Every structure is written in C-alpha cells, then in structure tokens.
C-alpha cells in the first residue's frame, strides 16, 4: 500500500487573501459610491465566495483522510490499494472539491473513510443544500424553489435535480415517527381528551399515477365538446389523499345554547376562552390506503396513551369508509371510542333544507334553522329529521323543492348514533372538525392545488411528508434523524460490521511521500 503526500501549501492562504481583498474593496471609491442596498448585494456575492474559499480550505486540512487501520468492506474484502480521488460537493456557498483517500481492490468498489467522517451524500449536493431544498419545496412550487435557492445561496440546483432531492429528503418520514414512538415516553401533563380526526382531499395526478379504478374511469370518459370542457366536466382525474391528525385537548363543558352563540357572526366578549389542541401532529398520504393511514393514527394515539386512560374521540365529516375503519380498529384494539360527526356539516344540511321553506337571507330562515339546530344539539336529531319530512309533505313541496329536505332528513337519520351532541357537550368533548379541515387546506390545497399542475405520485407524497413535518413542528428533529440515517446507509453499511475506520489528519503526519 502506498502512502499519500500532503500538500505543502497552507490551505488558508487563499481565503486570507480574499478577506484582505474584501476589506480593501470596502474602502475603495467604487464601494463608497454605492447605495446601502447595492453594497448589501455585492457583499453577499463576495461574502459567499469568501465562505466557499474557507470551506474549501477546511476540507483541505481534513484530507486526504488516510485510514488509521485496515479498510474492510461489508463484502468481507480488504481494500489494500489506496489513491487520492477527488469529488465535487455543491454547498450553499458554491462548489468545492473533496480530495480523499480511496481504498480499493480488484472487482470491488472503492471505500472512502473521509466521506464517512464528513457524512457526504452520494450525489453532488450537500445535506445543507438538500435541507434548504426540502424547506423551500414544502412551501412553494418547484420553480419558485429553484429561484429562491439561486437568490439566497450560491448553490446551483436545476429543477429536475431539485425534484429528485425532495423525494430523497422525505424518505425517512415513516421510520422517524416509528422510532420516535418507540424511544419517547408517553406524554404526561396533556389534556385528558385524545382526538383522532381524518378526512380526504383530491390531488390532480399524472394518468399513470392514478389508482387503477380511477385511471380506467378516466380512460372511458368522453368529453362532449372537442375544443373545451362543458359544464360539470373535469379535465384531470384526482387521486384521494387520506389526511389524519392526532392531538390532545382539555375537556370544555358547554351547553347547546353555547354552541349556537359561538356560531353567530359576532361572538360576545364574555365567552369563555376555549382550550387549544396540544402536541398536534398532522400528515397525509396518497400512496397508502385509508386503513393504513388511520391505523397509523391509532398507533400515534396509543403512543400517547398506552394504557387507554384518556377519553378517545374520533372526529369525521360523515365519510362512511372512514367510520367503518375507525370502528373496526377501535374494536380490534379494545378502545372505547366516541365517534362524532362534525357539527358544522349538520348545520350546513339544515341551512340547505331551510331554503325549501323560507326565502334566502330572511329572518324566518335563520329562526327556522336555529330552532332545529338547537334540537339536534340537544340530542334529538331523529325527531328533527321526522319533523322536517312531515313539513315538506304538509306543504306539498314538489320533488325538486323537497330534495334538500330529504337529503337533510336522511343525513340526520343515518348518522344519528354519531350526533349525540348533548352527551358530548356534557363530557366536554370537541364536536367540530376544524383541525383536520385546516390540515387539508394547509397540506394539500395551499400547495398541491396549483393551476395546471399534475403530480407524480413520488413527488406529491414527498411534498406532503415535508409539509406535514413543518406543520407538526418536527422538521428540525426529523432532519437530524435523516442525516443519521444517511450516514448509516451510505457509509456504515459499506464496511465490515458497520465500523468505519478512523482517519489520520495531515497535521498528525506532517510529511508523507508516495511509495510506488
């Protein structure tokens, strides 16, 4: 094995020269003639170049990273041949070069202990660039993310590469939450009500990434006009994402009249301040089935309350599939689950029905709805359904006029077991799905519902995961975990027993010469 010669050039000579040059520039006539904003922009450009130079100098002091012992791969082959190999690294300061010792053997891939020490990614872009990419892509479109990176860093990341980095950035999402549930103790001191809430939201997808049934239906769809869509037609089919949230909250005992007052356009100033959700986690998935996502919600909830000592609540908007899955999983896990249908959906059905009897915007309509809504809140949903049906018959409404009345009555009767609001309010349970509706809006509509956008499944799933991490305030913790996972799979996994040999610094061996 040969020894590697170290450079005799002082690595920080260039950055020192750049720094002195920058000081000279700041005192120059050119700089003194600038406005403050022009000077800021020029300093950012020159400062980035200085930081890149400092970064490069530091890497030169670390290299070439000779192994302080034998280098043996996970394949059991000892790498005995060594030579310096260079690779690029795109950082937020610009492109630098990492010269490191590569250890090889016939027919085997070279190993680089310094790569492991630095936790370098296999591709060009540094983990910090990847973090910036993940944050930007979670907030805005890929095109705008490319522009933002160009404005705020010296990294050059084209759009296609950015999309690939986003997918890689989100790959440890499931593992992060699974491991965190294992190693973190159950929450203490949180509210006694534990809430699971789920919903669904559609995302326009590329045809090949639609679910099979949706793809077949889209293929059979024929548009009536050749040059435009007619009323009610859709250009693109959607794939439904299941959205879930889990949180704890303190009980908030109320009366039906309190709910009616709170739904008024103007709230009274003396209303009691309601408790806020605690330790809220939200997420969504296009890849997974509703049952898989809801099962994850139960796992997250059981992590918080493993002994089932809290009051468990499931809030839904009336989706029958979700209700069936929630009931099934609650029985399987022997959990007493209070399944509640959103009270706002009930009020919307009542308003639609009320228009069959009263003019829109009239005081009579408001009185009609308020009276029946209060009765539903008192636990009399079935009576209200029967009453409005009889009223429609007595008034001899036409089939088209009474259609919203029948829909409302059917809704109240169908979901009567989940509309026991008198019982829920007495126990201080939440009865509205505002948390999950906000999650649908933030995770999906605000980012995914872009005019003209058609998502790939992998890209959409990655963006949903990154937005979920930010919404749950877990992004920073996740990123630290992600970099640990990157080290495990990109470096430790390549070495025998997962042990990367330590490296020798150049200053520890001041002069080495190449032996041929």
End-to-end distance: 9 Å
In which range does the helix fraction lie?
40-55%
Trace the largest sheet across and list its strands: 9-8-7-10-11
Structural class: alpha+beta
Main beta sheet strand tally, sense and closure: 5 strands, mixed
Strand percentage: 15-25%
Give me the count of strands. 12
Number of helices: 20
Q: Poorly predicted ranges (pLDDT <50, ≥5 residues)?
A: 509-516
* Gyration radius, in Å: 31 Å
Mean pLDDT: 90
What would the principal axes of the Cα set say about the shape? elongated
Structure report:
With 516 residues, the chain is of the alpha+beta class. Among the domains are: 13-119 and 491-508, no CATH class; 190-217 and 237-268 and 275-443, no CATH class. 48% of the residues lie in helices and 15% in strands. It contains 20 helices and twelve strands. It has helices at residues 13-26, 29-32, 36-62, 113-118, 127-139, 142-152, 159-169, 173-183, 212-220, 256-262, 290-304, 320-332, 343-354, 363-377, 381-394, 403-414, 421-427, 434-448, 457-471, 475-490; strands at 66-67, 71-72, 78-79, 81-91, 94-105, 108-111, 193-204, 238-249, 278-285, 311-316, 337-341, 503-504. The strands form four sheets. A five-stranded mixed sheet has the order 9-8-7-10-11, sandwiched between helices. Strands 4-5-6 form a three-stranded antiparallel sheet. A two-stranded antiparallel sheet has the order 1-12. The radius of gyration is 31 Å and the shape is elongated. The termini are close together.
């Amino acid at each position: 094995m040969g020894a590697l010669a170290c450079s005799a050039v002082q690595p920080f000579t260039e950055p020192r020269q750049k720094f002195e040059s920058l000081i000279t520039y700041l005192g120059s006539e050119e700089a003194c003639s600038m406005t403050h904003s022009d000077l800021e922009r020029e300093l950012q450009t020159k400062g980035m170049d200085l930081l890149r130079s400092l970064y490069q100098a530091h890497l030169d002091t670390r290299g070439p990273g000779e192994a302080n012992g034998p280098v043996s791969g996970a394949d059991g082959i000892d790498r005995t041949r060594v030579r310096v190999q260079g690779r690029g690294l795109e950082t937020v300061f610009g492109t630098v070069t990492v010269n490191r010792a590569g250890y090889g053997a016939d027919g085997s891939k070279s190993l680089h202990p310094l790569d492991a020490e630095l936790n370098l990614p296999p591709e060009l872009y540094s983990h910090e660039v990847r973090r910036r990419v993940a944050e930007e892509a979670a907030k805005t479109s890929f095109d705008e993310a490319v522009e933002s990176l160009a404005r705020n860093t010296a990294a050059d990341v084209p759009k296609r590469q950015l999309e690939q980095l986003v997918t890689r950035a989100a790959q440890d999402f499931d593992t992060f939450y699974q491991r965190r549930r294992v190693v973190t103790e159950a929450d203490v001191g949180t509210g006694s009500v534990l809430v699971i809430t789920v919903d669904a939201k559609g995302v326009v997808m590329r045809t090949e990434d639609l679910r099979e049934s949706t793809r077949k239906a889209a293929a059979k769809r024929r548009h009536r006009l050749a040059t435009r869509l007619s009323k009610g037609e859709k250009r693109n089919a959607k794939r439904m994402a299941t959205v879930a949230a889990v949180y704890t909250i303190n009980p908030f005992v109320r009366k039906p009249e309190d709910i009616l007052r709170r739904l008024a356009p103007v709230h009274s100033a003396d209303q009691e301040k309601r408790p806020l959700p605690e330790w809220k986690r939200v997420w969504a998935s296009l890849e997974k089935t509703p049952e898989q996502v809801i099962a994850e919600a139960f796992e997250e909830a059981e992590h918080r309350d493993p002994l089932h000592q809290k009051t468990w609540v499931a809030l839904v908007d009336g989706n029958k599939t979700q209700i069936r899955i929630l009931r099934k999983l609650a029985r399987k896990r022997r959990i007493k689950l209070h399944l509640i249908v959103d009270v706002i959906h009930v009020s919307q059905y009542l308003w639609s029905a009320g228009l069959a009897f009263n003019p829109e915007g009239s005081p009579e309509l408001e009185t009609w709805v308020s009276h029946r809504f209060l009765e539903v809140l008192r636990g009399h949903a079935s009576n209200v359904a029967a009453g409005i049906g009889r009223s429609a018959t007595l008034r001899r409404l036409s089939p088209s006029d009474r259609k919203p009345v029948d829909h409302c009555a059917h809704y109240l009767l169908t979901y009567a077991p989940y509309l026991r609001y008198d019982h829920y309010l007495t126990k201080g349970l939440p009865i509205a799905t505002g948390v999950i509706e906000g999650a649908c809006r933030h995770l999906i509509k605000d980012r995914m519902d872009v005019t003209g956008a058609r998502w790939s499944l992998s890209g959409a799933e990655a963006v949903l995961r990154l937005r979920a991490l930010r919404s749950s305030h877990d992004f920073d913790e996740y990123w630290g975990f992600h970099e640990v996972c990157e080290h495990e799979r990109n470096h430790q996994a390549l070495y025998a027993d997962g042990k990367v040999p330590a490296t020798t610094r150049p200053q520890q061996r001041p002069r080495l010469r190449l032996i041929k």
